[in-house]
Specification:
The complex is a heterodimer of chains A (about 110) and B (about 120). Chain A is an all-beta fold and about 110 residues long. Chain A is built from no helices and 11 strands. Chain A has one domain (about 5-105): Immunoglobulins (Immunoglobulin-like, Sandwich). Chain A has strands at about 5, 10-15, 20-25, 30-35, 45-50, 55-60, 60-65, 70-75, 85-90, 95, 100-105. In chain A, strands 2, 4, 5, 9, 10 and 11 form a 6-stranded mixed beta sheet that branches. Chain A has a 5-stranded antiparallel beta sheet with strand order 1-3-8-7-6, with no helix packed on it. By secondary structure, chain B is an all-beta fold. Chain B has a single domain, classed as Immunoglobulin-like. Chain B contains no helices and 11 strands. Chain B has strands at about 5, 10-15, 20-25, 30-35, 45-50, 55, 65, 75-80, 85-95, 105, 110-115. In chain B, a hairpin with a 2-residue loop joins strand 5 (about 45-50) and strand 6. Classes of the chains: A mainly beta (about 110), B mainly beta (about 120). The interface of A and B includes residues 94 and 96 of A.
């Protein structure tokens, strides 16, 4: 099946530092979605990217879709404790989620 | 808030028992999914459905079955529970018919413990 890998698996940052997670696919993706899962919660949709090279922003979050549509990134500027959670990408047909990046923000 | 429900929320059961996890959504979505997720780990697709009378297997489907008799209902059955089935089970739905909108909405999950 489709392979969608994310790096890093875990990331600890001091509050106020930036954070980036990368999503890489073995195949070209028609689109990519990002989700956030708080500890003890369920995944919640953040955004969908469709076009090659697309960049979208949501306040402190910046999402990018690669030119070849095989990779994507999520960048958080000046992290806050409310950013804690695991961030998942989901590629193509959305059936297969990435491995996730767990973010810990140290106050 | 998404209108997708799962019952029970927590279940502790003995080995060998047959169990059914319920999932219902009131959004009219045509696609529904079941995922298994251990704490802090990735989601593994178990089964999915494109619509009524449509079911497909995912990566971890060999020990469970699903049915989709009604659009809003997508139950998951484990014929014989084993300790290796201990995990959280998440149901999701997506896809408003006639649109390209395919964001997945997740239910709160069922946390299953098999003794």
């Amino acid at each position: 099946g489709q392979q969608v890998m994310q790096i890093p698996q875990y990331q600890h940052v001091q509050e106020g530092e930036d954070f980036t997670t990368y999503c890489n696919s073995s195949t070209t993706l028609s689109n990519i979605q990002w989700y956030k899962q708080r500890p003890g919660g369920h995944p919640v949709f953040l955004i969908q990217l469709v076009k090659s090279g697309e960049v979208k922003k949501q306040k402190r979050l910046t999402f990018q879709f690669g030119e070849a549509k095989k990779n994507s990134s999520l960048h958080i500027t000046a992290t806050q404790t409310t950013d804690v959670g695991t961030y998942f990408c989901a590629g193509g047909n959305q059936f297969y989620f990435g491995t996730g990046t767990s973010l810990t923000v140290i106050p | 808030e998404a209108d997708i429900y799962q019952t029970p929320r927590y279940l502790v059961i003995g080995t060998g028992k047959k169990i059914t996890l319920e999932c219902s959504q009131t959004m009219g979505h045509d696609k529904m999914y079941w995922y298994q997720q251990d704490p802090g780990m990735e989601l593994h697709l178990i089964h999915y459905s494109y619509g009524v009378n449509s079911t497909e297997k995912g990566d971890l489907s060999s020990e469970s079955t699903v049915s989709r008799i009604r659009t809003e209902h997508f139950p998951l059955t484990l014929e014989s529970a084993r300790p290796s089935h201990t995990s959280q089970y998440l149901c999701a739905s997506s896809g408003i018919p006639g649109t390209r909108y395919n964001e997945q909405f997740f239910g709160p999950g069922t946390r299953l413990t098999v003794l």
